């Protein structure tokens, strides 16, 4: 066991050392300034009788150390940033096993051993070879051991100890988060919190005052103050006005060593901006505004703009405008422009120069958001007078009604008067008016209008069933100024007259079961009429006079204006008569009444026992008993399929027996005839048959197969 550094130890440890013969390595510390030594724990001291001693101290000093205070036995100290021409002696190891014959070899291992810390293996001196920085590494853990120089065998177990780097004030405070930006409302009271800054110091906060910081303001007084220890910045002056000065530049200093002389310092800047509060009312740029407007201006069009300025910004500068007095409160309105904060005066109702030529309004601008803290400084509103002059304009004609509704019967005579429109010139000059029809709205030219008095007449016949409504546009034009034109819509409703006969709603075909019963309803039919009587349709049904005593069928009128067809007897047979035709007369209730004759076709069918129609053809009687129509169709389809298969088979056999290639001995193209004579014209054609060349197969008496 190795004990390092000087000091006293507890009595228990002394007894242990006295009872054992384990060699001790005694740490000899070179006499260094007292700053190398640090107070230790009272429980870790060397025994009074120990052979470990403090090299360079007198006996009186050792006794004094034993009786008053102890020193940590397993750590050494070295001052950071200490440099000199020679390596620094940190401490010395020594064991009483060493007789001075250099048989002992000291070995050092651990953090920085061999690089930062080097031990003399003969004397046990430990030196620091480099400048040390506590902020980079505060302590080093090393292990010391004594071995035999010849055999390298350990003479005792290794002992661990610590070398601590003692701090010096070599780091200035730093504001890591700077520069700072902060805001505080204008008009704040003294002591209002603004922000807090923080500086850090890399020196040891435990040892000395190297990291004890004190804050102060270098620039920014007398507007702001800072608490020295908490670094909280507060307002120092009351009622700072943003409109006078909005931004302040404050320089903060942090100094270590408790702010004493010789301490290091660092600075940062804080940009403090005063935020706006609503402490200013709106104010009109002028007390009286003059505007003019033409009487024919469109509704909603702006007449003019007024402006109330506010020294505040943002929401605090927003104002609402209202008309609070005047003879045009119902004629004009004022709204706020969200972008420019102007008050826009608009026309709310039509203007008429001939009726009123000028208006006087009193408008008010008031802040939308009011801060209750400054309500005593109000009122936060202002008023101004607005005079509006209406200017005369050449106005277009004005119709007596914005729209017209006319009615005419569909049988009205040509050139008959349907109705009349009227218009006048509202100007003082009162120009005569001429009327016309916009033919884009009357493409078929069914109507005409008198250009002088505006009477509308019928030009072509009307048919309500074709077109019930006609919408035309009448144009009124000033004769003195053709550019002044007005238009009015005219809706013409065509009234109904009874000019259409009723008829069946659809083509009906009734089915009568052979096994039907007398009085059974065969069919229910309905009728329609293109006319539209005021009291609705009411139809009368009857048979032709010669069919009144029809032996087979009769009719019955239903309450819902429909007609039921009934069978008079049973025993109908398709073999006797397959189809019956029943003419029916349909009459309406108009004046005069209109009627038409429609024929109902009744077909006799075979039905099931529950009355479901199965077949209506006479040929059904020739079907074999027990076979349905579906079964017969299936049988017929099978027969047709078999016939198709047989035909295909015969065709394929025939194609297989025919030769596909012409035999070589029959190829007449090899029979070449050579002539040495001169051509004789048509006589040469007698030497061979030209048809043979064109159709060599013809020689054998058959024609080639066309493919």
What's the layout of helices and strands?
Blueprint: H1 11-19, E1 25-28, H2 59-68, E2 75-79, E3 88-95, E4 104-110, E5 117-119, E6 125-128, E7 139-148, E8 159-166, E9 180-185, E10 193-196, E11 214-219, E12 224-226, E13 232-235, E14 247-255, E15 265-275, E16 283-284, E17 288-294, E18 302-309, E19 319-326, E20 332-336, E21 342-347, E22 358-367, E23 381-391, E24 398-399, E25 404-409, E26 417-420, E27 423-424, E28 433-437, E29 447-449, E30 455-458, E31 469-478, E32 485-495, E33 503-504, E34 509-513, E35 521-525, E36 527-528, E37 540-543, E38 553-557, E39 563-567, E40 579-587, E41 595-607, E42 613-615, H3 629-657, H4 690-694
Parallel strand pairs: 2-8, 9-15, 17-23, 25-32, 34-41
Antiparallel strand pairs: 1-3, 3-6, 4-7, 5-6, 7-8, 10-13, 11-14, 12-13, 14-15, 16-18, 18-21, 19-22, 20-21, 22-23, 24-27, 26-30, 28-31, 29-30, 31-32, 33-36, 35-39, 37-40, 38-39, 40-41, 41-42
